[in-house]
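Subgroup meeting minutes
Present: P.N., E.W., G.H.
Scribe: E.W.

1. P.N. recapped why we're keeping a running log of single-chain structure predictions: easier to compare across weeks, and new members can see raw inputs and outputs side by side.
2. G.H. added today's entry (196 aa).
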Amino acid sequence: MGGKAPQRIALFGGTFDPVHNGHLDLVGQAKATCQLDRVVFIPCARSPFKEDATEAGAEERFAMLEMAIAEKGWTDWAGVSRFEIDREPPSYSWRTAHHFRGTYPGAKLHWIVGGDQWEQLDRWAESEKLRQWLEFIVVTRSGSETRPRPDWRATFLEFDHPASASAIRDGRGDPQWLPVSVADFIGKRTLYSSGT
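Output recorded in log:
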């Protein structure tokens, strides 16, 4: 890439069951604040910290993410990775980070996490590799306090949004929380109890 600065790429993992406008608004804010060149959404097969299965299947969650990105007009800088859903669960972040280090050699890799995950990084497998390889974008709610971690690189991003994937799955969600294409897909597939 000549004399250009390294690409700034953020990895955003989660169940995305379903993806909603809170996820998307967060990514838009992170891109602007951290001057990101690319964001990769990584739907997981299953988190090591969650024993229960997702309600929507991996292919459905992948499809909803692709629809949401297209609806936002972000296809030139955002994408969805199959890396975790094509592997046997559970999903370990260090394996994912290692994969993307190879996919984007020389890039500056960021990882988007919530403040609760930031507090638990010591529990993550191979956390020392993550400390070396990644700069974290730590999402905090207004008024919450998040402790810094010596020798870890992080940008703290204050963000609040009412959308909740669990409320959507339970039929308690606001229709405005979902991209139109995702809401239509959920309705046609009757993916969640509400069928909305």
